[in-house]
Each structure stands twice: as structure tokens, then as C-alpha cells.
Amino acid sequence: MADRTQSHRPLRTTLEGELCAASSGSPDEVLRAALAECQAAQDELRHNATHDPLTGLANRVLFLDRLSHAVERGRRHKDFRFAVLSLDLDRFKAVNDSLGVRAGDEVIVDHARRLEDCVRSEDMVARLSGDEFAILLESLADDADAGRVADRMLRSLAAPVETREGTVFSTASIGIVLSSSGLEEGEDANVRLLQQAGVAMTRAKSGGRGRYEMFDCGMQARAVARLRMETDLRTAVERGEFELYYQPMVELSSGRVTELEALLRWRHPSRGIVAPLDFIPLAEETGLIVPIGSWVMADACRQVREWQERFPREAPLTLSVNLSVKQFAQPDFVAHMVGIVRTSGLDPRCLKLEITESIAIDDPDHTRGMLDELRRLGVRMYLDDFGTGYSSLGQLHRLSLDAIKIDRSFVMKMTDGPMHWQLVHTVRNLARNIGVTVIAEGVETAQQLKELRNLGCESAQGYLFSRPVPASEIERLLERDPRW
Which CATH number fits domain 60-215: 3.30.70.270, 3.90.1150.10, 3.40.50.300, 3.40.50.720? Predict the structure, then answer.
């Protein structure tokens, strides 16, 4: 990587050299030369303190200083409009990881020049850190100007960059905060504006990247709530605030409960039970799903093994557990699974892991290798929520899954008309043709159960049998051993 620092001769050495070089001149000439050299050195030091060494753009210090002047001007003159843009390159880490830091630097420099070309001379482009930029647009004719500049930037940055290591395609996400939304009082208003632009930029990323978002007050409230939730989630991991609920699966040929799906719940100290949809996406995003998922697996295996001993059957009770993308991507996942199963004493053949279509399809070669290792251990694999994604049927066949779970949205409508019934029938025929069994989710009525039996589905789960319930209620159900 190119050296990003600039060397400077010590001031004393500089003056001595200048004095020696000008020794033949008059004392005034020597003094003027020394002062000029000193001034140049000071100017360079000031420049380096306020500019990014790689791109030559303003840095955070200079940007915030310039922004503070804009804030004061906006407070004095109500017709003065400006906007702050926070810009972050999408998936830039992949460039550094795949092509190296030198190529990443080339992309940063190239994009810095493109951003400068998108603004006027009175505007400012700054590099805050890494692939994060900030832009100050001053003297706007109207608020829509900021959106037009953001569009121009997005189009410019979308063009490929030719580096020494290869061609790089990248997009950016931009957050915009307008001075017309109100300038808060206080000395740190410039910092708050930059933070608000960052909040909008994060929203743009979560909304699909390669786009911009305008900041609003509700966005700030959501960002604060999200931060609080993330903090609470980390605390929950440390304090063990999670618990498992279970939902039974019924074998349709016998009408008996043969399997339990472990489902995570969070017992928040002040909010009570938090539903998975309210925290699982955040756990995925922050990576906390890995330790949480590990706990789920270990505790569920231990619990079901205990129930097998208390309620013995000819065919032992089995367990299914959902896997997240990040869990499955862990390099030591299989070894970790081996350790959990051995510690719990559960027969691996009694464990079924549920994966989503995104895991199965996005990287089929990696997925197939992982599934082969797990199957050699005796673990079985289910494809969850079948029909809600964009499956490649050829890939599904190559993955050698053991079962597919028909999504509840199909099952719940199957008695509404022939088209919905036909969809479930088609999935059942597909499963039979590729040699896998079918589990129907979301069964709520006796009529749905009857139709599923007529179609030849092997298993079902849903509120008709039981909602997800705590372990204590599952024990009572296992004691009754009901039939449907």
C-alpha cells in the first residue's frame, strides 16, 4: 500500500540548512528565507491536520468546522438553506478482502474525485474515515436540490473503477438532513446534523442500498429505539433471559405427536415476552444470533433427551431447530454440533435442522458440503417455509434434503378454492418425485387436516394441535399422548 504519510524535516535542521545555504547573502535575506521556510512548514502542518492524507479531501475536523459556520449562518438568515449528506460505500469491505487494501485505496481516491465533480466549488466533500464521506451543500435554491445531487452521486459512483488488481463495481448509500428541518440550539448542532445524516444513511442501507434517504424525526426515534434494543439484547445474552417454547408436529398416519420444534422467546425484564420477529433480525444483523443459536441448540437437545427418557416410545421423540444464515456460515459449525449432541446424549438421528431457501440456494456447493457432513453424523435436514422464496428445484434435488415444510400461507388458504388446493397438491407431488417428505405448517382447521391427509402429507403442525408453548405444557401434552 502506498505510504500515506509525508515526512517533514525538523524545524531546527531546516533553519540551519537555510542559514548555511544563504550564508553568502545579507542577514536580512537569510532571515527572510528562514521565516519563509518556517511558514511553509507551519502551513503544511495545518493542512495535514485538517485534510485526509489519501484523497486530499477535508477531514472530519475541517468538515465540522465548516458545518458550524453554515449552522450559524442558517440561524441568522432564515432564507439560507443547506444540506448535509452522509455517504457510505456498499460492501466495501469485500473489495479490501478480495483485491487487497491497495485496490481499495484506488477505489477511495477515484470516488473522491467523482464526488468532487458532482458538487459546486462552494460545497465541501470530506472523507471522515475508511469508505465514509460527508458532503455539505450550501446556498440551496430548494430542498429538492439535495436529492438531485444525491442522485447524481449515485449514478457517478455506480460506474466501474479500473484498479491494478481488476475492475471494481460498487454502489453507495446516502443519508440527507436538511437545514429546513430545523436547526437545534446548542454548540454541537453541527455534530447532531452529521449524526442525523448518518441515521438516514443507515436507513438507506437497510432499505436495499444504492439509494438515498431523507432524515425525519421519526427516523431518529427509531434509531434510538434500535440502539436500546441492541443494548438490551446484548444484556439478555449475558443474563440468560431467553427461554424455549415448543410446538408439536403430528404424524398424520397415526395422529400422534412425534416431533417438537424448538422456538426462541425472550423474556424481557420490563417488556415481558418479546416475539421473535421483534428481535431475531437484529440478532442476525449484530451477529448475536451465533451465541444465541448455540444456546438454543444445546438446551433443546438436553430437554428433548430428558423427555425421551421420561416418555419412552418405540420410535423416540425427535427435535427440529431452525438455523440462521450466520450460524450455518461458521467454519466450525459441524464440530460445534458434534460437541452439543455428545454433551446432551441425544441420538443425532433424532435431530432435524431447518434451513431457509436462502441458505440452500445462495451458495449451493458450500451448503451441500455442510449437509453431507451433518448427514454422516445422522442429523437430518428440513427446508423451511418452502414456496416463499425463489428456489432452484435442481439445486434442491442435489442437496438431498429429508423434508420440506410447506409454508403456512399456502396451507391456510388451501380450502378457500381449487387454485390454493392445487398449489399444495403440486408441492406434495414435487416432494414425492424428489424423494422427500412433506410437513404442512399452519394447520388450523379439521378440514385442512382432512385435505392434507387425502393429499398424502406425512406430518403437520399448527394451532389445531397446539400453539408454541413452554416446556411445562409440553410435558402435560406428552403425558396425555393425544391422537388427532
Answer: 3.30.70.270
